[in-house]
Queue: 4 jobs
Job 1
Amino acid sequence: MGQTYRVLKIRIPWRLVEERPDVLDLAVRMRLAAEEYVRRLLKEITGQEEPKLTTEELDRLLTPDRRELARRIIEEVFSKYGLGRCFVKQAKTFWRETAFWRAIPLNAQLRVENEKDVSRAVFVDLRNEILKVRKLGVQPFIIRLRRQTVEWIRERIEEDARLRLAFLGIERQKGKKGPTYGKLYVALVFAREVTPVEPRALVVVDVNRLDHGVAVGLLVDGKLRQTLRLIDRDVIKTLRRLHEEISRLEERAARETDPARRSFLESRARYLKSKRYRKIRGVAEQTAGEIVKLARKHQAAVVVDAMDYETYSARKQSGESGDRKHLYDGLGQLKRRLQTLAQWYGLPYLEERLYSTICPRCGARMVEEKKRIMRCPACGFTDHRDRVPLLWAKRRYWELLQKTKQPAFSSTPTTVTLLTS
Ligand SMILES: [Zn+2]
């Protein structure tokens, strides 16, 4: 058994933020305090200024004997940011969680029917479709929940998940004159006990570029049973159009001499960029959902072709992909979502380098004969480029299946990414 987590991020409406500068101020102080606490704690433990740690490494470092150290740092740091007793108490109790999530956990209650309100800081009332935030030393505020949000929570309850804790969060944008703090949200962390599935098959995913679609193969008993290409042509078309429009606006803004006109063009470009971002997020969400559904149906482990990071960033920045750069943006998101979703359902998740240019029959380097059709000069093997990684997975089936059986579960959040419903 292990704990898995999914996070729902609920945006605080802009109007409320404008009316309540005290909420914005509090969220900024909470974030700065949490970050400083983590930085100081890790520096004391590792001796390094900004250690890059994986969740597993962090898990090993935060042993019970570090608790007093953590508590002392919390006392010192939190008072500096004017955070009262309730925050100190929460952070001390959840000193490990505070470090993992880099945010101060708030206690939370979910009311599904008529349960008694037990005065937690975050109160999610499904029946009245509202969320209350209170007891934080500022005037309470209420967010109305969207239908979609309520449905998402109900689905999690049906999966026996429970609301474990919440965060008041704020997004930070990197700017030329230092960071600026913008959108506010409340994040709800749902936890679920899960028994890891003993995999009986593999679902292999080759992600390379959004507009080529995502190639998926189902492998059972070492045979490629089914291949799918997940792609939504309409969305791809929309993305391309958005991209062209953004580029045009940015070019015009760069040439524009009138400051007012220029700022108008820039804000229009920003608006379209966030629209594009939402679209990409939508594609990643839907695709991950379909892949995990297939994996659950066949009790399969999810194996993702891990393009190595250098190839990924080179492609993202290269001239070849200059105008297609945005099509790589969704890939990291897709992987994170796949991992979170697979773990949520107890399915093993593995990232593995699978070749797309090396012949799966004889191992020779292949050449691209026609657009995306690969051919092996040594043995004559030929197939679509996106199928090659799937054939490699077929060839390595038993080894990969064995690898996915090694326990990768820990009781700590594996991804600290915040997912929206
Ligand atoms: Zn060959």
Note: The chain has two domains: 2-194, 201-231+283-404.
Job 2
Amino acid sequence: MEAAKFIQKYYRKRKGTDSLKWDALQERYDNADLTPLWVADMDFAAPDSVQADLIERMTHGVFGYSLTPADYFSTYQEWQSRHEQTIFQAEWLHFTTGVVQGIHDLIACFTNVGDQIIIQPPVYYPFFDVVNNQQRQLITSELVETEAGYQMDLEHFERQLIENEIKLFILCSPHNPVGRVWTETELKAILSLCQKYDVLVISDEIHSDLILPGHTFISALTIATELDFLDHLIVCNAPSKTFNLASLLNAHIWLPDQNLRKRYEKWEELYRQTGISVVGQTAARAAYRTGDEWLADLLSVIEGNYQLLTQRLTKQIPEIEISELQGTYLAWLDLRAWLPSLDMKRFIQDEAGLAIDYGEWFSPETKGFIRINLATSPEIIETAIRNLIKLDHKIKGGNQYVSDSDRIGTNRQS
Ligand SMILES: Cc1ncc(COP(=O)(O)O)c(C=O)c1O
């Protein structure tokens, strides 16, 4: 199916459907009329098989305590074999309601109050919260922006491991918000450091199916197998990003090591006794069984929206720098050379009418960046582009936007 046909078939108007992205604009941004390009879900309906299996299950009408379908794991492993070739084993799998909940629980289980946990900002901001809210010590090693895009700073990371006696590393792979799909070399280097300093790794691979042409996702599981480091690795992933199922509350925690598994199972017995979501697992199994073509079409829509954004903005507002999108559906834009001040709310919300994720949510170092969600119709991306171009004309047309106190750098006035 072509991208246009996919959009015609699966795009849905979500306003008025209790959608967080569309219906919480007043509450979150103080303006219900903004164009929503923030929270990472999609404006597309799930694959047909998901809807069909859910209708069949709903029609049965009984929603008592349930078991995970017997073919859930095999269906998932077959999906893996067709896509990323990662080898999982059924006994490694534990379910949780969401990846963030899973990471929160893993921190509670495997670390103590005051323990040092390292993350790589700019990064998905709940990583900060799951550490800080549980009174663990947050240590950071910022990604660095280079000519070749964002890179891990391995020297700095190693120094942080040594100086802070890090217990746990939360890896974001692929990386939200910078859109990197880490290479085998990068993953080997970072995991080898964790191995050298005895650091437990949680690899958040929720975006692993959302890979753009020319890039290959490699799971930390594959690398840790090669390094003989599976006894220090836990992987979290889910069908929720891939197939837009976040509200169905079904995510995976993979614990390959028997000792880690036992410790986690004991912790679960004490603190988490929720059963599985029959709705979430029915939907996930259907998606993994037949969602291949749907995903391929979705990726062409995302690629198309990314091209639209980069081509139009590069031409019209060359001061905006857009990171290469290798994976995820989240574009990362550096507006610092364009805007006359870093009063982002004033420019992006009040003037351009966009609800986006602000750079400083991901790192104090990335104020002046924004993240735009591309998993929507090209018309909505067009609206965002048009509004930014209109704002550009306004900025460049008059100097009411540039007061001396506003200036953010000598070379930043247009
Ligand atoms: C890296 C990453 N992890 C986790 C999540 C959220 O996962 P969940 O809804 O399963 O908690 C997101 C959502 O955007 C994400 O980008």
Note: The chain has 16 helices and 15 strands.
Job 3
Amino acid sequence: MPKTTLTQLKKPMQHLRGRLEDLQAAHQYRQRRILDGPQQPHQIIDGRRVLAFCSNDYLGLANDVRVKAAFQAGAKHFGVGAGAAHLINGHTRAHHHLEETLADWTGRQRALLFSTGYMANLGIAQALLGRDDLICQDRLNHASLIDAARLSGARLQRYAHADVEALQRRLQATQKQVLVSTDAVFSMDGDLAPLPQLAELTHQRAMLMVDDAHGFGVLGSSGAGSLEHFSLSQSEVPILMATLGKALGTAGAFVAGSDELIETLIQAARTYIYTTAMPAALAQATLESIRIIREDPEPRSRLQENIDYFLHIAKQQGLAIGGRQATPIQVLILGESMHALRIAEQLWEAGFMVPAIRPPTVPKGQARLRITLSALHEQEDIDRLVDALANFIQE
Ligand SMILES: Cc1ncc(COP(=O)(O)O)c(C=O)c1O
């Protein structure tokens, strides 16, 4: 074999430039903008005043005075950093109280905090599955669920979006232990998974795990999420994961279910064991968010009114949003990445922040605008957005 000379070897980081250029050429290059100030509909981004329709702070709690006061009081009492993992000495009374409150609210035996939803999803799959197992997922599940399947080493099979019969065929064709996981409200589509049918199908046959990142705090009679909305108990949906950084306005996530599930995660979930606990002040702030949501139906009803109003006037203006459910995530599918990017850019120039979502986050040819609504939007804000959308799309 001929010897490679030193000059023939690629420098260790050289390939990165080429990859970045490929992303740019494919209109998939992502860029960050800089937000000055809190999360709220009218904000300053990159020095420009804009009206934002892209936050997951659906109830406007991220900048709520009561939640901020609870956070400050928490920091005063517990300090800022947790200083250690939950299994060492980072698990404070505030964390424990939050877990008990989450279990009570969701009607589950126990709950366990994780530092992020991404880590919770990784931890669940890794702790519950091994190489001989199977994990079945909706094709449109969030990236963290797909990565969770990869990390677990189990075989991953993806079924067509919301297709319960396709899942049934997969379950019938295997003898393996199976985990079925699904978004409850699909993060890039805004529709609800057929949870009652999934629960019925998996009962006795597979473990069902629901990621309620976008339903928790919003749906259900008390805001406890998609499982409350469909009245699904712990025996029907044994594994619930939800995040705290969206409607609850704070950060972090939790898993709720049986005592055995939670103990298994404490013993085996590496993303739980080998990481610093979230700050206790965040747990205190989250407890306040939960108190507000449970005691005051007003923010949730304002959000619902805004969603209904948006759907109503978008339909009047002939925008193809139809067929979507009344969740805070609404999408306008535009097709090619370039097209979606162009409209998002025009909106930006006109003072709106609405992101273009492109492959690989969504399937090829289905680039879209992802519009999220908040309880803090005024009807006038929504009028302005819909007028701008109608103008730019008809151009
Ligand atoms: C459906 C879904 N699951 C999980 C996550 C991850 O949650 P976190 O932001 O807390 O990591 C997100 C978004 O962030 C999501 O949309």
Note: Residues 116-118, 121, 142, 144, 183, 187, 211, 213, 243, 245, 253 surround pyridoxal-5'-phosphate (CB under 6 Å).
Job 4
Amino acid sequence: MPDVSVELVSNLIEGGKKPSVAAIQGLALGGGLELTMGCHARISTPEAQLGLPELTLGVIPGFGGTQRLPRLVGLPKAIEMMLQSKFITSKEGKERGLVDALCSSDDLVKMSRLWALEIANYRKPWLPSLARTDRLGSLSEARSILSSARQQAKKVAGNLPQHQACLDVVEEGVLFGGHAGVQKEAKIFKELVLSPTSKALVHAFFAQRLTTKVPGVTNVQLKPRKIRKIAVIGGGLMGSGIATALLVSNTSVVLKEVNPQFLQRGQKMIAANLEGLVKRGSLTMDKMNKAMSLLKGALDYSDFKDVDMVIEAVIEKVPLKQSIFLDIEKVCPPHCILATNTSTIDLNVVGEKTNSQDRIIGAHFFSPAHIMPLLEIVRTEKTSPQAILDLITVGKMIKKVPVVVGNCTGFAVNRTFFPYTQGSHLLVSIGIDVFRIDRVISSFGMPMGPFQLQDLAGYGVALAVKDIYATAFGTRNLDSDLVDLMVENGRQGTLPNLFLLFQCCWS
Ligand SMILES: NC(=O)c1ccc[n+]([C@@H]2O[C@H](COP(=O)([O-])OP(=O)(O)OC[C@H]3O[C@@H](n4cnc5c(N)ncnc54)[C@H](O)[C@@H]3O)[C@@H](O)[C@H]2O)c1
């Protein structure tokens, strides 16, 4: 935990008579980067990652980073790096003034020594970063940059105190100098680190890292098997998103649909998803073409004989899912994992008619599946540890956060969401405006309210799961007809509408 004595270390290094040069390789994040900024120069390998991601933990940089970073890279870039917890490579750091020279890892120590000698012999007096003002711009420029950053932070992080606090501390240094800024930084850090926000974010950080450690699965010497080819059944909203996520990670995908028209629609959705990723800059054209080449369409099960995993994503109907699981048990190889993307249905019911209970597992993605990071992995009491490990591995491979949960109606996420949605429907039933409910929840800190979320996911899913909840929760279930009324009046929700629009454009 940073305190004044630690900050004194970087001040001591910076104020020392002997030059200190930081040699950076790998990651220099948070306190690591702050320490290097206390040095007289920074030499790095080109691919090293530099950043101050403290705000994601509900605090601000506490070793002088809020003061030295703006003095080295300028206010706009420093604010972007801190408020958005953005990393940059050393190569960019060199262009921005954060890194003084780049070299290979073999030459790193030698080069850093040479820099220290040169500073000692020829570059006197050396101006410490904390005393620099040349990158801060004029006072009025700084004020305008800080003011628009405050507006932006209010929009994206209205309930998070660390964003405005970070800007206050940066401003203190701009107005009264780096040392005053460092004093304020230490004071604010100590307050924030004890805040409920920080405690919650630190908990979430460690919890996220624990998700891939599952007792009885990841600590029993099992090795993940290679999953080379995956079949996705259903090329609708979810199936096309799941297929996209797999293809982007270089996995061969067989996409099965019921007829050529729906198959073509699914393939085009995948192409559009990939193009979207290219537009967002997260995929190159080459990778998009490679991904498309790994996709094969199918209208029957003949390509299923060598698949390592099947992910079923057809509509939420118990008899349909049961008959599909009967079919795939027959056609897939015995090692093949049989996964379902069901949102709610008890997996024992899905696999009831098969003899493959040990390889039946839930792979519950969230919409849009190629973007949302959560992958809820549902295990029954019979699912084998190997199948769970393999799905965790696939999850990591496609850059999801895999969370293993137990089996019951709604699993963990939708079961938790059930009373939340029910509460909001109960309020509507006594006459409260849906928009007001959404507004109150958004201002509480949720990214959107329950009705906007339901609209985004589509009313088809809400209708399909209604009966499943009614059966599972009996009298605890509020029988609201709001969604039925929306559908009767031609409302489908946002994503399904986009989906339909897309279908019209392509057919
Ligand atoms: N929509 C969501 O937000 C969401 C989120 C998580 C999970 N889910 C779950 O994902 C599943 C699919 O939902 P969706 O929203 O993608 O539905 P969807 O209606 O958009 O797509 C379902 C697709 O399955 C196809 N299909 C039906 N029977 C088939 C068969 N025998 N073989 C091959 N394809 C077949 C249909 O033609 C359709 O294209 C459901 O179980 C749902 O509960 C949905």
Note: The longest helix spans residues 260-279.
